[in-house]
Amino acid sequence: MLPRFWRKIRYRYNLVGTKCENCGRIYYPPRNLCPECRRKSSMKEIELSNEGTVLSYSVVYEAPESFKLMKPYVVALIQLDDGVKILSQLACKPEEVKIGMRVKATFRKYGEDGERGIIYYGTKFAPA
Ligand code: ZN
C-alpha cells in the first residue's frame, strides 16, 4: 500500500506538490508515483510558492457540466516563484488576464483519484 500522506491536511495555506527523489521532477497536483520512474520513484511532499507569474493562458469556452456557471473560464500556465510550472484555473475574467501578470493561490478543495494516483486540489489562482 502506498502511504496516504495527503490525508494529513496540515498545509491549509500552502501549495503542496510532490517531488520524486529519484529523478528530481516536481509534480503538481501531487502524485504518489512518478510516471517516469514508476517503481523506483520515491515521492516526497514539498511546499510550493503560493505566488507566481502567468506564462501563457487559454480561455475555455466548452466546459464540463460542473463548470457551466463559470463559462468561459481561464486556464493559465503559471510559473511559481520557486520555478515550478503548474497549470491552474485562474479566477478572473478572460479580458483581465495578461501574460506576466502576478497571481496568487486562493482556494482549495481535496479529492483524489486513487486508481491513477492523482490527487486533485481545487486551488485556483487569482490576480495578486
Ligand atoms: Zn522520478
Structure description:
The structure is a single chain. This protein has 2 domains: 1-48, no CATH class; 49-127, OB fold (Dihydrolipoamide Acetyltransferase, E2P), CATH 2.40.50. The strands form 3 sheets. A 5-stranded antiparallel sheet has the order 6-5-4-7-10, with no helix packed on it. The chain is mostly beta strands and 128 residues long. 0% of the residues lie in helices and 44% in strands. The model has no long low-confidence stretch (mean pLDDT 80). The chain is built from no helices and 10 strands. It has strands spanning 15-20, 26-27, 43-48, 51-60, 73-80, 85-90, 102-107, 110-113, 118-121, 124-127. The protein binds zinc ion. Zinc ion is lined by residues 20, 22-23, 25, 34, 36-37, 41.
